[in-house]
Inverse folding.
């Protein structure tokens, strides 16, 4: 047995054993890399240099700003304002709160870029409301978890930045941001359609609330056959009644819209600023972070400045985990390249079949399986160098930006699948439900997500139309 073979077995075998022993992924990557380097005879100084090079990248500066932005929004209860707006748009229909759950994740995902932040922030508001109105706890948690996956696709997404780094720097972060927007919204509307079908079949509750802290005063009026609209004056406030069962104060509506538009302007800063070339993705993250800081502490005043050190502490904890993971994954990827593992896997996959549709199906199945056992960031760093040569080969001819969206979409599904789905764990903790029962309730949602994934995989239009429109065809 050659030294290269032994080093390959050491790299992959030690990593698998440590993972099954429930050693954190960062330490598993580091120890596996060290073992393989010792067998191969690679100098340890080379491994240290690779780790330093992994985090010594200007593009990574956007990650701490996006993480800090999410923490500030969580502290400032920005999620309440997003839920209010979604309630105002779709809350009045049968199954209205299920629709709200889909819409508010679409809005919030375009601000935070994090599925876990979405579940913890919006879930703490929407899940209790849904349970109170009659939805099962498992369905409420499952819908919250699956809709939160839009957050890793709709920009800004720090996972897109990690993919661009893992791809070797040849993929534009701006194009990736644009490419994720339509697939993210497509996923949201697919789940919205599922809720619409289920609301008819299972007779979901019908109702309308202005917001979690301001319930609507229920009023019933006799409806004239000749007049579909009513104007009712109450407490010096004119109320427009379109449906005689529900009332909404116009002044409150305007307030809700204004309060929600201000946070949503963060998405405009990032999308328009990057798309028009006003500033880079890194600069946009810093500007958006400052904007959210001003909203939270000076405009809405929903949090106190003296609590800001706690926000910084939480952000630094998350950032330390992410950057350490990137550093160790960079060294791991270097050893894989040194041992020519990506080339071997590429040749093996292409030898299976020359049909690109079958190859993409195999890759999707592999990523969905791996997503059940590993978190998103390490999988991006590990699988990108392995699979990118496969999908960009003449056998498939996929654009690296399109593959980035497909990869992130696959791993987003992994965030809500047991046994390692971080978004699923957070959702069950917030909703106080068991993982087993919640996973069973999520089966229709998993099916919708996989169908949406297949459409995004095989129809490049969803991913490539917007970046090609903004930046031109690459």
């Amino acid at each position: 047995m050659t030294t290269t073979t032994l080093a390959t077995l050491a790299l992959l075998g030690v990593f698998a054993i440590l993972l099954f022993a429930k050693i954190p992924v960062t330490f598993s990557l580091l120890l596996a890399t060290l073992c393989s380097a010792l067998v191969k005879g690679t100098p340890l100084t080379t491994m240290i240099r690779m780790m330093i090079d992994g985090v010594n990248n200007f593009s990574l500066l956007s990650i701490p700003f996006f993480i800090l932005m999410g923490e500030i929004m969580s502290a400032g209860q920005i999620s309440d304002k997003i839920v209010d707006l979604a309630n105002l748009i779709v809350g009045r229909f049968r199954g209205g709160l299920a629709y709200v759950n889909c819409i508010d994740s679409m809005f919030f995902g375009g601000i935070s870029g994090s599925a876990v932040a979405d579940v913890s922030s919006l879930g703490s508001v929407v899940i209790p409301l849904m349970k109170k109105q009659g939805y099962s706890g498992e369905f409420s948690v499952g819908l919250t978890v699956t809709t939160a996956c839009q957050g890793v696709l709709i920009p800004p997404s720090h996972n897109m930045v990690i993919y661009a780094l893992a791809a070797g720097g040849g993929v534009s972060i701006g194009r990736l941001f644009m490419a994720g927007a339509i697939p993210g919204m497509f996923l949201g509307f697919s789940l919205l359609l599922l809720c619409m079908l289920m609301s008819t079949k299972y007779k979901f509750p019908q109702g309308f609330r202005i917001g979690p802290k301001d319930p609507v005063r229920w009023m019933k009026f006799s409806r004239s056959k000749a007049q579909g609209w009513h104007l009712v004056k109450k407490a010096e406030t004119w109320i427009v009644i379109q449906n005689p069962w529900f009332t909404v104060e116009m002044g409150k509506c305007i307030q809700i819209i204004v309060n929600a538009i201000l946070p949503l302007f963060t998405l405009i800063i990032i999308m328009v600023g990057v798309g028009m070339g006003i500033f880079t993705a890194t600069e946009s993250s810093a500007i958006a972070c400052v904007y959210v800081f001003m909203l939270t502490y000076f405009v809405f005043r929903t949090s106190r400045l003296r609590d800001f050190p706690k926000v910084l502490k939480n952000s630094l904890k998350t950032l330390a985990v992410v950057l350490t993971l990137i550093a160790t994954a960079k060294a791991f990827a270097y050893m894989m390249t040194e041992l020519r593992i990506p080339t071997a896997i590429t040749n093996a996959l292409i030898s299976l079949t020359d049909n690109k549709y079958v190859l993409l199906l195999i890759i999707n199945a592999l990523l969905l399986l791996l997503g059940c056992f590993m978190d998103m960031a390490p999988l991006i760093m590990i699988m990108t160098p392995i699979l990118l040569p496969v999908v960009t080969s003449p056998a498939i001819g996929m654009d690296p930006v399109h593959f980035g969206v497909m990869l992130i979409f696959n791993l987003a599904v992994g965030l809500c699948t047991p046994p390692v789905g971080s978004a699923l764990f957070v959702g069950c903790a917030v909703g106080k439900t068991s993982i087993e029962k919640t996973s069973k309730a999520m089966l229709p949602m998993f099916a919708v997500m996989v169908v949406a994934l297949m459409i995004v995989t095989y129809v490049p239009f969803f991913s490539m139309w917007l970046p090609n429109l903004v930046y031109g065809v690459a």
Observations:
- Residues 57-208+260-303+339-471 form one domain.
- The first helix runs from residue 3 to 20.
